[in-house]
Amino acid sequence: DKAYEAGSDVIETDLQLTMDGKIVINHDVDTGRMWDQNLVIADSNLEDLMVLRNKMDPAISITTFKEALQWLKEHPKMKFMLDIKPTNSKVILVKTILEMREVVDDLDYWRERLIFGIWNVDWYKCGYITGTLKKFKIVAILPFSKMASRFIEYSNSLNDSDYKLYGVSLNFLNSWKPGFKEHLLPYFKENNLSVYLWTVNSELDIQHVISSVPVYGIVVDDPINYVSIRDSYAKKSDPLAQPILNGAQRLKVYLRLQLFELFEIIFSSKYATVPIVRGITLIQLTVILLRRLHCL
Length: 296
Fold this sequence. Notes:
This protein has helices at 2-5, 46-50, 65-74, 91-103, 107-111, 121-130, 148-158, 180-190, 203-212, 223-234, 247-267, 282-294; strands at 10-17, 23-25, 63-64, 79-84, 114-118, 137-142, 165-171, 194-198, 217-218, 275-277, 280-281. By secondary structure, the protein is an alpha/beta fold. The radius of gyration is 20 Å and the shape is globular.
């Protein structure tokens, strides 16, 4: 509701599949960060999850996908981008279609209201083979811009407008990399792709995007804070001027980029899926570290 009141055009929401085949809204695979018990969602039935209470507000319980769809139905100007976490079973693609039809039995209706966000090409292929992604807008959610080419090549190989890639949603740190505006954005434009950036939260990064990064949309954690920063920045004499960085900010940007490029090398390494500590792979460790990097 707060995102809607702040004037958001699209709400990005994360889907997780329960053990009994229901879909709930939760960013993590478990509930420990936001809820009063720590349960692994894939190992829990819906009834076990519905008794959980939010740590910040005990009046709030976990939201089911069907409840979210009902809310969307009641707010006709809004859209959802569905972040389909790759930790799920791919059967969640079929389940999303079934639950949509239980709320409104008209897929064309949902094709106007929902965007599918997927993290790897295997899920894209699954959506094509099963027909679940047909005529839906498909966005590749990517930590690193180099990963986009595989999605684009697969989309082009299909040569089917019903399954064409609609856009890419990139970690915002890609936008600070040299050559992003000069080379990557033209490449995406050449392939008729909308570009989103996630998750843009700090004042410096919001100003950077507003002033100099022509993308279709950005994902933020706090829409109200974003609107406040955006409106304050718009009042400046030249709101489209690139923010002038002081010494500390320059160092911060430099260090973040160095770490980000290191993570990119690790992510693409042939050892990326090898468990290193307690079964955690390099990819999983990189994702954890990327979350920490967002806070810098």
